Amino acid sequence: MRIWAIANQKGGVGKTTTAVTLAGLLSQRGQRVLVVDMDSHGSMTSYMGYDPDSDGSSLYSLFHSGSGSVTSMIRKTQFGKISIFTASTALATLDRQLGTQDGKGLVVAGGLSQISDDYDYALLDCPPTLGVLMVNALAACHYLVVPVQSEFLALKGLERMMRTITMMNHARMSPIPYLIVPTLFDRRTRASGQALENMKERYPAALWKSIIPVDTQFREASRAGSPISLVASRSRGSIAYNELLEDLLMLDKPDLEVVA
Ligand SMILES: Nc1ncnc2c1ncn2[C@@H]1O[C@H](COP(=O)(O)OP(=O)(O)O)[C@@H](O)[C@H]1O
Ligand SMILES: [Mg+2]
């Protein structure tokens, strides 16, 4: 199983949309996908048809289960090849409960290692805050996707995220490979173009070569509770994410990993 985290220390940049869309596209290619909702707001959980306020959280159980069966915490979705670790508001209390305990940064990595033969990909949809969940995601992932809204203010969140990656790399055996993905790109606005230029200047090596455009079909897809590629496969958004997936599949090469 390959583990990809989708993270940025800012909300509304397209993290959940990226995770759901990549999950849809991977599943359409026959891959078995596990999505992990690490955000206490539970957007991904709602998207996949569960209620984060009443269904309880399967990810929360992972943090409190000791040695419980990980398989029993995972739920199926209506999309055959996509399963989910659901989130709930209880996740927001984890930092207070576990913040200072040693070893709690590897709970997700440990849980996923138990089921690594059951799925081809795990996609971790991160919260916008730096806390125990983000640390778990960055410790567990093989590859990191950083969606950045194409506007000036979003670049601040990106800077914070870059500092977090540097900090996490001190604790990991190998640095986290990552790709910065400009999202919500609106070619009619100067702001989008300027933000993109700015990213090109500052992060030339880590910036994806293309962009994810603004596409109203994403709203339709989320209303339908379905990845966009299943309801509007020819939409610009779906095509752009498919291009992103192709590049990620090239970039995340297991054989390049250094075994320590
Ligand atoms: N490329 C896009 N075009 C249009 N709307 C988008 C696009 N990407 C995301 N959205 C919308 O923007 C909002 C925030 O996206 P979301 O993925 O939830 O961000 P995050 O998880 O980073 O908070 C959602 O309503 C989503 O449907
Ligand atoms: Mg989200």
In short:
The chain is of the alpha/beta class. It is built from 11 helices and 7 strands.
Can you count the beta strands? 7
| Portion in helices | 40-55%
Distinct ligands, ions and cofactors found in the model:
adenosine-5'-diphosphate, magnesium ion
Low-confidence blocks of residues: none
H and E string: EHEHHEEHHEHEHEHHHH
Strand arrangement, major sheet:
3-4-2-5-1-6-7
Strand content: 5-15%
User: What's the story with the biggest beta sheet?
Assistant: 7 strands, mixed
- Give the number of domains: 1
Instruction: Give the C-level CATH assignment.
Output: Alpha Beta
Q: What is the alpha-carbon Rg in Å?
A: 17 Å
User: What shape does the CA trace take?
Assistant: globular
CATH topology descriptor: Rossmann fold
Q: What is the first-to-last residue Cα distance? A: 18 Å
The CATH superfamily label reads P-loop containing nucleotide triphosphate hydrolases
CATH architecture: 3-Layer(aba) Sandwich
Q: What oligomerization state is this entry in?
A: single chain
Count of DSSP helices?
Answer: 11
Helix/strand-derived category reads: alpha/beta
Average pLDDT confidence is 93
